[in-house]
Amino acid sequence: MTETQQSTALDTLLEETRSFTPPREFVAQANVNDPEVYARADADFESWWEGWAKKLNWDQPWTKVLDWSNAPYAKWFEGGKMNASVQCLDRHVADGNGTRVAFHWEGESGDVRTLTYADMLAEVSKVANGLRSLGIQKGDRVAIYMPMVPELAMTVLACARIGAIFSVVFAGFSSTSLKDRVQDQEAKAVVCADACWRRGKVLDLKVVVDEAVADCPSVENVLIWKRGDGIGTAATGDPRDVYWDDVVVPQPTDCLPEVMDAEDILFILYTSGTTGKPKGIVHTTGGYMTGAYATTNLVFDLKPEKDVYWCTADIGWITGHTYIVFGPMANGVSQVLYEGAPDFPQQDRFWALIEKYQVSVFYTAPTAIRAFMKWGDQHPAAHDLSSLRLLGSVGEPINPEAWVWYLHHIGGGKCPIVDTWWQTETGGIMITPLPGITTTVPGSATTPFPGISARLLDEEGNEIKGAGGGYLVLDRPWPAMLRGIWGDNARFEEAYWSRYPGIYFPGDGAKRDEQGFLWILGRVDDVMNVSGHRLSTMEIESALVSHEAVAEAAVIGVPHELKGQAPVGFVILRSGFEAGPELADELRKHVGTLIGGLARPEQVHFTPELPKTRSGKIMRRLLRDVAEGKAIGDTTTLADPGVLAGLQADYEKGDS
């Protein structure tokens, strides 16, 4: 099938797939299939969350479910005590499930390991003992800079086991980014890998760590795990360097877990933000574990005794924290963990892994889905994906075309899709379908998770009821919510709670349709004000992608002397289509026809690639820098920083 034929077929599917009702057989076996769950949770949200907390193992029960008297500083399950690693490991082994596979790990170069829950408990205990031997105690901060290997998950859980506050830094960030995070938290140790593989190349991680910690006096030790036989920089003579084989491997395989208060800090995870220094988002133990456990169980409908679950995120992001480590492992499910890129050595790598490990629940990002579409339908078609029963989407709003392609080409037209909205700050999924209840529509995250209250407000804080658009807010606390910004309470209050006092503002806009479903419009700074009208970049991007010539699109708002702001589009074409002024004009008219004249892009620029983070998010902030002729901001999160040079050159020439 040619690219044009694929596009025509997708248009037909999009026309035919106005909604998706979960199959009867899926509903019958779903963990929740009673629509009344929403009303019950809403009527007494504290009892709802308490019910989920009771499913975990506590060393001491709580005396109060929620204390919101010092808003915006919440306390959940006050007086309760538990250990997060026990929820993920010990209780499954104690229940007789130690032989269940925890991780099917596959390295990019094809090396394979299988680890059971009993294996993970033993290895985590060894890492925990090793950290204690280095003097790490409860409350100490440990920065972790490792690729997607089991040792990363082990280190996270080992820190939780001894009460050390861990902070995973994505192993792709620059030495400056790592240094900033280590300095901000005053980390006592850094745990790193010497190197990793990416698209067949060795990336030296230790050299990045060396540069970072040279200016970090708080760091007493750098614990180095060697990837294979050690493919990166070894010790540099720094007396702080110690090796995994010396510190961890000889340790005993049992470690008494630290008893943690529900409100003790579990981890710090830094978000870059658009400007200024990174924000260290603080999450605590009891509430976070409750939210992670509950949302993973219901959103992904997990059946631990038979499901194989795969979330393609990196543990360096919040998605990997909640939906690789803590949520799925608390539920005791088997997972796939993959080190490499989705297109190496071939563009069918993901589908080959799904077939090999019989993955049943698959959770990935819209930008990845659009890349799969661009690479061609033939790749998933070459593999048996019949093991899949549920699909998920995370990271940014998914456009309807990608949603429909995902449903039919990956899910065989039978798998419910859970399109999830949440943030680092929320700790877990906030808005999502429930796959055994919700009849979904392409592109909508649908409704708040049970127990979550989301509203739409206008500029003045008035509620928008019924159909309409506005600022998305969460107007009551939830267990996995952030507890602050590390060392900066003033910034915490200003960033999230100042626009509407006492109400959490995530910075996103949304609209509600006639049936009450929510459509996430993206960051408020990704909403343009064109001639006094608010337009979402996502809506314009979806319109562009609906054209047969377009594989992917990003839209930004640029200053305009008459309109205030005007849309500008950056477009990746499908093969078989040629860039030029005529096609640019056709695309502009196409958007105008679908949305209206106000949404018609002022310019359309063609590009072979868009600036994306390694987790697949389009960096629209950098596109605005290009369009406005500004100095390019921080590019350390980009998968390919070289993309920007070509974009700048084309933009300056005015190619469109």
CATH topology-level fold name of the domain at 1-60 and 68-97 and 284-452 and 465-479 and 496-522 = Rossmann fold
- Architecture (CATH level 2) name of the domain at 1-60 and 68-97 and 284-452 and 465-479 and 496-522: 3-Layer(aba) Sandwich
| Fourth-tier CATH superfamily name of the domain at 1-60 and 68-97 and 284-452 and 465-479 and 496-522 | ANL, N-terminal domain
> Helix share of residues?
25-40%
Task: Please list the strands of the largest sheet in the order they lie side by side.
Answer: 5-4-17-16-18-19-20
Give unreliable regions as ranges. Answer: none
Shape from CA axes? Answer: globular
Which secondary-structure class do the elements indicate? alpha/beta
Biggest sheet, open or closed, and with what strands and sense?
7 strands, mixed
Beta-strand content estimate: 15-25%
Number of strands: 30
Q: What is the oligomer described by this structure?
A: single chain
How would you describe the overall organization of this protein?
This protein has 656 residues and is an alpha/beta fold. Among the domains are: 1-60 and 68-97 and 284-452 and 465-479 and 496-522, ANL, N-terminal domain (Rossmann fold, 3-Layer(aba) Sandwich), CATH 3.40.50; 531-653, 2-Layer Sandwich (GMP Synthetase, Chain A, domain 3), CATH 3.30.300.30. Helix content is 32%, strand content 22%. It has 21 helices and 30 strands. Strands 5-4-17-16-18-19-20 form a seven-stranded mixed β-sheet, sandwiched between helices. The protein has a five-stranded parallel β-sheet with strand order 7-6-8-11-12, with helices on both faces. Helix 6 crosses helix 7. It starts with a helix and ends with a helix. The model has no long low-confidence stretch (mean pLDDT 91).
